[in-house]
Structures are given as C-alpha cells and as structure tokens.
Amino acid sequence: MELRKRQLLATGLGLAAAAALPGPALASATAPLLVIIDIDTPSTRAVFKGFVTAVNRRFAAARIRPEVRFIANSSETDEPSFQSLKQELVAARADIILASNPTLAAMARKCGLGTPILFFSLADPIASGLTDSLTRPGMGMTGFTLGAASNLKRREMLLRLAPRCRRVGLLSGTIHLMEGLRQPPAGHSVWPPGIDERIFKCDRVEELAALVKTRGAREVDAWDIEYTFLAFRHPEETVRLLATLKRPIIYPRMKHVHLGGMAAYEPSIEESDEAWVSQVASLLAGIPIAEIPVVQATRYSFGLNLRTCRQVGIDPPKSLIKIADLVIE
Prior knowledge:
The chain is an alpha/beta fold. The protein has helices spanning about 5-20, 25, 40-60, 80-90, 100-110, 150-160, 175-180, 205-210, 215-220, 230-235, 235-245, 255-260, 270-285, 305-310, 320-325; strands at about 35-40, 65-70, 95-100, 115-120, 140-145, 165-170, 195-200, 220-225, 250, 265-270, 295, 300-305, 325-329. The protein has 15 helices and 13 strands. Strands 7-6-8-9-10-12-13 form a seven-stranded mixed β-sheet. The chain has a six-stranded parallel β-sheet with strand order 2-1-3-4-5-11, with helices on both faces. Helix 12 (about 255-260) links the parallel strand 9 (about 250) and strand 10. Helix 1 (about 5-20) crosses helix 13 (about 270-285) and helix 3 (about 40-60) packs across helix 13 (about 270-285).
C-alpha cells in the first residue's frame, strides 16, 4: 500500500479508536502524559502552545484529556546533558515522548525507557538513524519529516537559476552537521560533476556577520541555505547579511523571498500539529508504533523575487517563473 494511503489509514484508525473505544491509556484513571523535549526559546514555546491547543481540540470530547509537559534541553550530546535529560524523563514517567529534532530523539531512545518516541526531522530519518523504514518504522520511533528530498530539489533549482556557478556555498548549522544530514540518499549525488561545494557553519547572527566578510565567502559563486535554526529564527538578518555578497542565493522558506531573498524552495506538512496529534491518538488507541507510518512533507512551494534576481544578474528561465508559487516583480 502506498505511503499516503497507509498514513490516512493509520490516522483514521487512531482517531476512530480514540473517539469510540479508547485504549488503556485513555481509559485509565489518570490522564496520559505527553512530554515535548526542545530547546527553550520564544519560538519553541510558541510551537509548544500550538501543539497544546491542537491536543485540547482533538481530545475535547474524550473522557480523559492528555496532559502535555515541556522539558527544556540544549540538544548538547555530552554526558552531563544526556544524564540531565535522562533524569528528567525518568522522573516525568511520560506515556509518549515527542522530540523536536533527531539529536533529542536519539538521546531519548538512549535513555532506554521503552517509551514510544515521536520525532520531527528535517532530514531523511533513515539516513540519520532514527528508524529503518518510513512505512513500518522500527526502533521504537515514528514521527514526521520534511525529508532530504527537499534539499536535493532546492539544489536543483539553484543550478537552474545559476547554471554557470562552479563553487557553491552551503550554509549549514551544528545540529545538521552532527546528525549527518549531509548524507544523500543511496544512488544520488549532492551535486553534479564539476561543482565544488564549500560548507560554512553558522548558528548565530554574529557568526554570519563575520562570515560574509571573509575571502572564502566572497569566492563562492552561489549559495544554498539549509533549514537551520539561524535561517528559521533570524530570517531578516540572514537575508540582509547574505545580500551583501551579491550572489545567487536560494533559501529554505518562502518568507525569505518576501524579505528580499532571491529564491526559496520550501517543503511543508499541512497541519503539522495535527500530524503529531493524530499519531498520539493512534498510540493511545493501542496501535503499535511500528504500524504508524512516518508522515512526510505533503506540499512544496517555490518562490522567486525577480527584483533580487536582477540585482545579482540572474534572468530566470520562463519555465521556472511559470511554475513558481510566488513571484515578486
């Protein structure tokens, strides 16, 4: 059965069972506990609030509504950080753990609690070792992912916009590089022959401000910006600083195009909170985690800012302009 149908079937079974015949956790005397582990920032707190709202909405008619708790973690992988996380998870005695990135998901599994884990991943969860299958995930995990395929498509779009570039700068981040997100799927090459990729790591605005002034950055012909914390949390500063390089640049979010970025290719999961809540409902209804498929990106958007294209000497092919979801004249 194709992935999308499996997703819909698993979700449908989970929702029906949760509403009509709640599993043991829903029928127990105490509310099941959902624990989200994430870095503690205003943006992650906002995401947490959105998830809580989605949980309350989904379980409004249930006899017992799940409790949701936030555990802050730095995503550091050193032993003290791991032991601190383990101590908090052991004390929480969660029924389900939700991890905001592959590093935290792997650390939660390392705790050996046997608790089902739902992850969010920007990369292929098979390549990063979270699970061994998307349709029947193993290793006690499932979740949703924006997928490595979007990275490959973003690079393809960049080369179509700047076919003469030979040196491509990849702006990545510490967590991406730690998790091996640079690994392409089997049988694929990150770039075609003749393209020299240079990886630059930036996690903070100050690091990017220093980078754009270096000779190495100015030697790059075009830039590919990964979906990092920097690009997500500081889009205005990211676009403003990279614009000083006056090079073709493709971003991971449509918002960057609105802010003056040249182009963007953005994967998304419609109702991402609902995707996690549906998986929670399935687990609480008694569906084994191995039978809950990993949810993948359901929509992709491509945007062009023609004013910025002209400023960096790019004349986009009409075929690209025609398929763009957003074109800023």
